[in-house]
Amino acid sequence: MSVDRTQVLRSAAATLSVKATATMDEVARAAGIGRATLHRHFAGRDALIRALEELAIAELAAVLDTVGTEQGPADDVVRRLIAAVQPVAPLLAFLVTENQLFEGEEQNEGWAALDARISALFRRGQEEGVFRIDLTPAWLCEALYGLIGSGAWAVADGRVAAKDFSYMITELLLGGARRSVEK
Q: Residue 157, CB half-sphere, CA atoms under 13 Å: how many?
């Protein structure tokens, strides 16, 4: 039986982003494979984590490239980003969790570069007068990541319909981030 390595990694990301302490047995079970098969593909937990990190960074970079973070008004870009990130939301949730739990004080360079791109988007939105300036770009990034991770978990648990993922995150984030226009 052939094992789809990318699918195993996606399943592992979903499992580890919800339960960072999941055992290799739990990761294998969630992926629908045996522990021995998991170990044939990933020598151990560190190898699995590094492979997940590489996949997540590559996929999120592709989403950012596709969305075109410099093209159009910042709030429209955020809207497109949220819609485009839905298929890789568990990977993004893993990246955020992984960098907080496994990397310690040092952030992975690839993740730092992606975070900087998203932060620049929020900064641009502030400069354009679209986003509130009393919320830092770093905080807006954290809010975005948290909402995407929570949305992914809620969809996976069946508490939220997948079709509502983008709408709910966009409305909550932009509803709080947009600068109000005084009349």
A: 10
Q: Which candidate, 77, 94, 98, 60, places its Cα nearest to that of 140?
A: 77
Q: What distances in angstroms separate CA 70 from CA 48, 51, 124, one per listed residue?
A: 33, 29, 9
Helices 89-101 and 109-127: crossing angle in degrees, nearest 10, is: 110
pLDDT band at 100 (very low <50, low <70, confident <90, very high): low
CA distance 111 to 23: 24
Tokens at 136, concatenated:
């830092």
The tokens 């770093």 sit on which residue? 138
Average the pLDDT over 152-180 and give the result.
Answer: 88
d(CA 130, CA 117): 17
Distance CA 172, CA 154 (A): 15
Sign of the dihedral defined by the CA atoms of residues 158, 161, 165, 170, in that order = negative
CA-atom Rg of the chain in angstroms: 17
pLDDT at residue 181 is higher than 80: no
Determine phi and psi for 178, rounding to 5 degrees: -65, 145
Beta carbons of 38 and 31 less than 8 angstroms apart = yes
